[in-house]
């Protein structure tokens, strides 16, 4: 709930007085079950089932009208029966709407397979711009385009844009007569030469294209078709055209970029985000910013005369070798971009204009400590000058900036920060004071702040996500995506604790008991580990909500810690895993397990299990290579040999960032071998299930093959599961059938080794 202190903070943040009477708690969403409470009171509540994966809806982006009267947001969910092996299942993202002025509950705006996302309400709040696939038969068909839907007049949405390469990220100009959109243009469609080193010695961009001029017109006429296709036994230019055609036909893939791996295949052609201004009536699009430059995170100034965007710094180095970004400005009528802020030691993003357009707020990351430095809040005069770090002592990541008026003048900068298992919102006051504007057990998934209302999606231990609005009359839940279902379903509670590792490191962890636990009985318990490594878990971790609750419904307890290296505890704790991915985090995780077992007598220490994915797959393998307490373990999509990971994973920069060098350097190689679970494979005796998606190129698959092969040679109990056609995010966004299969197999494997089974 919102405490009176938090409500007072929000009152100061907004430009209106807030009535605190009766504002001691949230108003729960109405449920049909509430009307029938007497009838269901005697019935045993349902428990979370595997099939309930399809009932968990994810609230995404939110947009609130300028006057705070309307809100539109996205909801993503599984469509289809996940238990029907032959049925078609997938995901759909739909738009939902709530009339805040009328006090109404949210209702769906879109239906069917096309859905919609990226909502943007017009300045008057009467028209909604959003993105969905374009109509067949129109220019840009097959690409995602911007659509408009009237919220005051009946009728269907109409497609506004017809850009060849699609349109995304719609944003209204003041006045509502036009929109700013982004189109992702492939480099093969760009003119001229790249302004950076193309890193292909002996070749020039576009040199394989067919010549437009021929000295002999007769020869051009007779050889036009052969010239366009090229030929293998010809001059060099013609041969290059032939080879270029072979690439187009997928005969060969030619790679000369540093980052040549995507998520599930080789990296495709580079694309650049170009900015277009689109007339809201005719759909006519005018390019404002293009060329060999990406224009990300664009934001229109309050006066509509300038646009701020994020782009590469002004250097001639290949983009793959640049891990920092700068803030640029461009006139709303187009023209040459102007560099506003750049620093070789810092990377900047998320520009947001002050209310008067005189200042630009943005985020800043210290590139001297990649992956460890906390993202900061910064500002600079829009006219140029020195930039300032506004909250250097906050020691938490700053995410999702919003600028809103303050009572009595000035403005607040509102943002969210992860901290000790919670993701809450904070505000920088006009006086420069940091105030926590929302404090609840859980995680704010997304939020939008306006002068009249703050709307946020909140995930908690007992509900994976509802939408809330807080305004002059307090807080109100305005959705019922899960509340009706969960009113008749028993979910496990969560308790948080702190403990210390043997070296004195303080570790936060959470404990969930099995549902239906009987006093005096002891139950198997899963130690669930998070990946990242720089990630934070807590009671509002949406991606794990269904999995944890399902294990509790099957009679297992769950313990999940935030070991050193986790986000949400400041720079020092996050860097605690530098050159120390194994021993330190392992001791933290086991300390949490020991402390939980010492306090909660329902934990059966003879029936402990451990699992985790990505970095946590690494940590699972490390733990069972150094500790024999677990009955069985499941290592998912993990990294097991760090030197190999450098070559086969697209997240390869974690090697130099976290270990200080490269595998060919003797000192670094010694560290990588020391920190690799594969080094200790002969010490693994715990039954191990290894899971990997076959197209996972974030960590790479060969390391899991190495681990399994070694354990088979050693005649240790190991089983290998591969998921065809899926990538690293299978457990979160993968094929729903495979997600159900994955959970079922983990449980089945644990049950084989559960005492008495």
TrEMBL record:
GO terms for molecular function: serine-type endopeptidase activity. It comes from Engelhardtia mirabilis. Keywords: Hydrolase, Protease, Serine protease, Signal. One of its GO terms (biological process) is proteolysis. The keyword Protease applies. Residues 184-216 are annotated as: Disordered. Residues 546-753 form the Peptidase S9 prolyl oligopeptidase catalytic domain. Residues 197-212 have a biased composition (Basic and acidic residues). Residues 1-33 form the signal peptide. It holds the Pfam family Peptidase_S9. InterPro entries: 6-blade_b-propeller_TolB-like, AB_hydrolase_fold, Peptidase_S9_cat, WD40. It comes from the Bacteria. The keyword Acyltransferase does not apply. This is Translocation protein TolB.
């Amino acid at each position: 709930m919102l405490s009176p202190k938090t409500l007072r903070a929000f009152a100061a943040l907004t430009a209106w007085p807030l009535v605190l009477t009766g504002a001691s708690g949230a108003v729960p969403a109405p449920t049909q079950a509430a009307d029938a409470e007497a009838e269901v009171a005697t019935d045993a509540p349902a428990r979370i089932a595997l099939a309930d994966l399809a009932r968990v809806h994810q609230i995404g982006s939110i947009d609130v009208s300028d006057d705070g009267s309307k809100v539109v947001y996205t909801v993503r969910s599984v469509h289809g029966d996940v238990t029907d092996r032959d049925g078609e299942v997938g995901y759909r993202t739909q738009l939902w709407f709530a009339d805040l002025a009328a006090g109404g509950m949210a209702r769906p705006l879109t239906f069917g397979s096309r859905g919609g996302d990226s909502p943007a309400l017009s300045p008057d709040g009467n028209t909604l711009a959003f993105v969905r696939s374009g109509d067949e038969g129109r220019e840009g068909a097959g690409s995602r385009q911007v659509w408009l839907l009237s919220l005051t007049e009946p009728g269907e949405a109409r497609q506004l844009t017809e850009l060849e390469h699609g349109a995304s990220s719609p944003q209204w100009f003041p006045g509502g007569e036009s929109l700013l959109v982004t189109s992702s243009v492939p480099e093969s469609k760009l003119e001229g030469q790249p302004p950076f080193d193309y890193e292909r010695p002996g070749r020039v961009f576009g040199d394989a294209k067919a010549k437009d001029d021929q000295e002999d017109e007769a020869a051009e006429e007779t050889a036009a078709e052969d010239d366009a296709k090229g030929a293998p036994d010809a001059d060099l230019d013609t041969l290059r055209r032939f080879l270029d055609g072979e690439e187009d036909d997928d005969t060969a893939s030619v790679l000369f970029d540093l980052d040549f791996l995507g998520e599930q295949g080789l990296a495709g052609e580079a694309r650049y985000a170009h900015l277009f201004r689109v007339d809201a009536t005719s759909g006519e699009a005018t390019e404002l910013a293009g060329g060999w430059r990406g224009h990300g995170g664009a934001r229109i100034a309050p006066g509509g005369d300038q646009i701020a965007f994020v782009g590469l710094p002004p250097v001639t180095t290949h983009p793959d070798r640049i891990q920092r970004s700068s803030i640029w400005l461009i006139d709303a009528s187009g023209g040459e971009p102007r560099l506003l802020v750049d620093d070789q030691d810092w990377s900047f993003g998320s520009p947001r204009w002050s209310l008067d357009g005189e200042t630009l707020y943005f985020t800043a990351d210290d590139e001297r400590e990649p992956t460890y430095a906390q993202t900061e809040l910064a500002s600079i005069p829009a006219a140029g000058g020195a930039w300032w770090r506004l909250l250097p002592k906050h020691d938490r990541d700053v995410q999702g900036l919003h600028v809103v008026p303050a009572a009595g003048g000035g403005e607040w900068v509102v943002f969210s920060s992860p901290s000790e298992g919670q993701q809450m919102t904070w505000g920088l006051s006009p006086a420069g004071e940091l105030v926590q504007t929302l404090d609840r057990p859980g995680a704010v998934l997304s939020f939008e702040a306006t002068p009249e209302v703050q709307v946020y999606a909140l995930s908690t231990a007992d509900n994976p996500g509802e939408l809330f609005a807080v305004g002059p009359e307090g807080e109100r839940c305005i959705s019922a995506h899960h509340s009706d279902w969960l009113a008749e379903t028993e979910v496990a509670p969560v308790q948080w604790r702190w403990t210390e590792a043997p070296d004195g490191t303080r570790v936060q962890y959470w404990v969930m008991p099995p549902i239906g636990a009987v006093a005096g009985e002891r139950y198997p318990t899963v130690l669930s580990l998070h990946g990242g490594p720089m990630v934070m878990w807590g009671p509002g971790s949406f991606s794990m909500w269904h999995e944890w609750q399902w294990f509790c419904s099957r009679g297992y307890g769950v313990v999940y810690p935030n070991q050193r290296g986790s986000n949400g505890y400041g720079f020092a704790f996050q860097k605690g895993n530098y050159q120390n991915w194994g021993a330190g985090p392992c001791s933290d995780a086991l300390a949490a397990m020991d402390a939980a077992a010492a306090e909660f007598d329902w934990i059966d220490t003879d029936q402990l299990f451990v699992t985790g994915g990505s970095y946590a797959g690494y940590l699972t393998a490390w733990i069972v290579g150094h500790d024999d307490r677990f009955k069985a373990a499941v290592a998912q999509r993990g990294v097991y040999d760090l030197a190999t990971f450098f070559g086969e994973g697209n997240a390869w920069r974690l090697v130099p960032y976290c270990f200080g060098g490269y595998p060919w350097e003797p000192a670094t190689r010694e560290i990588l071998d020391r920190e690799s679970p594969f080094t200790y494979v002969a010490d693994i005796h715990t039954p191990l299930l290894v899971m990997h998606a076959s197209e996972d190129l974030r960590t790479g698959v060969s390391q899991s093959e190495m681990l399994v092969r070694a354990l088979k040679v050693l005649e240790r109990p190991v089983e290998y599961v591969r998921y065809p056609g899926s990538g690293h995010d299978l457990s979160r966004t993968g094929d729903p059938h495979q997600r159900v299969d994955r959970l079922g197999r983990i449980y089945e494997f644990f049950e084989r080794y559960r005492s008495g089974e």
